Amino acid sequence: MLGWLRARLSRRPVVPVVRLSGVIASGGLLGSRGLNIETVAPLLKRAFETRNARAVALAINSPGGSPVQSALIGQRIRLLAREKNLKVIAFVEDVAASGGYWLACAADEIVVDPSSVVGSIGVISAGFGFQDLLARIGVERRIHTSGERKSILDPFRPEKEEDVARLKRLQAEIHDDFKAWVRERRAGRLKGDEATLFSGEFWTGRRGLELGLVDGLGEIRGTLQARYGQKVMLPVITARRGLLARLGLGSSLDQLGPAALAAIEERQHWQRFGL
């Protein structure tokens, strides 16, 4: 917060940094842990309104998540970039995969560490089937619907081929949107064949550079100082905390259960990439 105020009062060049770190999820799913348009929009607004800003930097570390929230955040970044006529540079830390790569593509340029993980341009749905377990323990599943397809992919019933086919059609539509976004934002820079690039595979930052998924290797401070001078200010735009949170009184026992479940779900997203 103080860094942002100093940047507004200074005449030195400024590149505000917005950290986009964590799983991308709607507000109710991971709470304050998740990235979504509600939590990110105020940070983007402050960054793009920073006085003397030469560009806006995104520090990305995300394994992905909700395609809708990814699209909403990406669209907001592009809208503000056009309104303020500012270049956006994304710096990938450990991972920008799936929805994380969607966010990176909102930037005009993507810079990565050689060992960063990028890509995973695909759509995934995962779940469990418990119908045999119910039979083993003598529990009968009862479900009543109005609408014959209301109980699609019920985890307590045997999987139906027509339900899986319907899910795959839905995934294909979302995947098409993802591919269209990457083609638009990386136009003229993609070097690999689309069958490979859009297969859902992910690569190191170094390999991503060869495939045209990213633009260069480097880290945020050294790259921005080389471009805008050693005196460039890099204020990190963070969320404003309420009084109770600043005093350490923002948590309660009834939040511990949901927080633990959110942490487990978030951990699963990261583990896909060996992190």
Main attributes?
alpha/beta; eight-stranded mixed beta sheet; 275 residues; 2-enoyl-CoA Hydratase, Chain A, domain 1
Polypeptide structure, described:
The chain has 275 residues and is α/β, with parallel strands linked by helices. The chain folds into two domains: 2-120 and 201-270, 2-enoyl-CoA Hydratase, Chain A, domain 1; 123-183, no CATH class. The protein has twelve helices and eight strands. The chain has helices at 2-9, 27-30, 37-48, 67-84, 99-104, 131-137, 161-185, 194-197, 205-211, 220-228, 243-246, 256-271, and strands spanning 17-21, 55-62, 87-97, 109-112, 117-119, 202-204, 216-217, 236-237. Strands 1, 2, 3, 4, 5, 6, 7 and 8 form an eight-stranded mixed β-sheet that branches. Helix 4 links the parallel strand 2 (55-62) and strand 3 (87-97). The radius of gyration is 21 Å and the shape is elongated. The two termini are 30 Å apart. Residues 242-247 and 251-256 have low confidence and may be disordered.
